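User: structure tokens for ANK_REP_REGION domain-containing protein, please.
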Amino acid sequence: MANAEDEARLQSCLKTIIEVVEETMKKLSGQEESGHFSVDGALDTNIYTFTLDAEEEALMEKMKTELEEILSQNISRLSILSRKYLLDFLYQHSYDYKSREFANPFNCGILKAFLNDVQQMLASLKAFQGAFNGIEGDVKDFLKRFPTMKDRPGLWGTTLLYSAARNNHANLVRYLVSKARCSVNAQNQQQIKRALSKSVKDDYDFVPNPSAGSTALHGACFADHVDIVKFLFKHGADCFLRNHADETPIDNGGTKPNIIKYFTENLILSYSIKTSELPYLPIREEDEDYVVDCFWEYKPFKEQKWFPFSELESITLQGSLIVKPEQEFKREIHLRVRAGTYAVSLIEFLRSGKEVDFTQKFAWIRCRGSSILNFNCYCLWQIMFSKCPNAETEPLLTMLTIPTAYDSNFKVQLDSWYFCDAKTSAQLDHTMKYRRKYIRLVLSHVCHDELLFDFQTFSFTNENGSITGSIRWIPKRISNNPHNKNKIIGIDDFQTLANLDPVPLTTARLRHVLQIDDSMSITDDDELLKNEDEYDSDVDAGDIEDNDDKYIDMNEIKILTLSEIMAAEKVTIEQAVQKLSEANNNSNARLNALETKLDEIHLNVMEQNKNMNMNVPNEIMNVQEKMINQIETIQKRTKELQDTTTSKLEEKQQQWEQLTDNIRDMRTEMKKI
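Assistant: Done. Predicted tokens:
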């Protein structure tokens, strides 16, 4: 900790500054009562403007001069640590240490904020010393008055939580995390480049200070306070954050057997790779290399146990999910074994037989490992209940969804897969990314018991074992058809896969989409509904009767542009304009023909309706009325598109005529030259 004499000098300097500012504010308040001034910075909308009042300006200038004199007398007497702490604060208020002056004048609007900051700085000296010594009252009083300081470093560059954890003050640590809501991953003060994840090792002023950038978990691991390590870890402390010396909390506890034992029991070291070393990095999406570290398993449809695939089968399955840009994704692959040939759906992660009794060979499959690490693909999480009170016992092949709101009729279906909601999926993703073995969750709309999820075994259970089950992930699917090559169009489990060309969403695909032109934006899953009319379909009267959801694909009647024609064929501008006019005239002709055909259908239906007996059943009348409404809708859409086509064509023809005239004028001028 800082020298007591030096700290006393800093306190004296701050107290003197406070006295000067308060005295000035009293004078301003006295003038405020006479109707001249306001010192309420919260209500002053011009707090950073200068004053036009000569008396106020004189008071501010006098205060500024006094503050500069106080600082000039005291700063040089402070230690390097205290001086830096004070100057970092003064820099925010435009103080120039070289000239020993404030660059900007004060005004009454910012005076309260300045005073509050100085008081906060003075109070922090006692509070951070209290955190170091475990004096809870000092810390609580400070945070009650200045709650924004809960995660900020103090004079010694450390946070309150770090000081408490480093010195084994367990009760204070619990208060700071549970009551004061301090971030368990707040880092101590560090060099700005290091804070911005820049390399600083070659900088002339770089000093690898282990305390800088450390978290409370760093301090607890280094000091071998295993109970505090457990508490911080359970509250989400990051084991892989690096301090100024490039150390993780695991590195800091590397020589402490109790710390290593705890991390070994609560982190996933690996799946199929044999190792006893603790991990040193989380699973990162930026890594492009594939790592084979997983187990492929299957569970027969009506059994509870998971069985491993053979080594050869696992290799086949592993390769099937790695899709390179030039390759086509196979929705289904075949595994040949002694018992016969199995088909494996990579969409549903379902294995089935090819023989007559194929239904007897249904089995769910899963990959027990990270989808990002093994395949660089994003995933959707699913859970399956094997045991649950008052549950339906007949398994289903249909994939279900966990309710996101209370449903009195909901009952758990045993041995059936449920998609997790977005929040639960995010929590499971986070657990896998940070290689944690366990996470506790409450699925409030399913059961009120806390469930312990084990990521080493891909299973879950409640405390008394009355609820058990399995988890797995399946690849997040997106559309890869020609329309969506540069988009992220999600596919849910309830959509037909026709014309969608489903592929797994990979980290490479996401990076590609983010890097392309801004016009190619990421589309939500729901946006897929807006793209249904992009797929070609031939519509006639029979189609209208067969399917209410079929519409004419207006996009196949394309309005050509000048640039498209000139890019496709090497032609002059005049020739391109002629080709454009011909193409768009053909489009109008097609629209007119389509409208005529629809009019004929409409008249025929109306005529049939007139000739029919009035006792025609209501069902037939309803069908006819539905057909008429659909025809009218299509006619309306056709008319709108035709109007748009004509308007755009006329506009472009005017532009091209002007362009042609300009070119002709240029040619005439060139001939004269």
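User: Anything notable?

Assistant: The first helix runs from residue 4 to 33.
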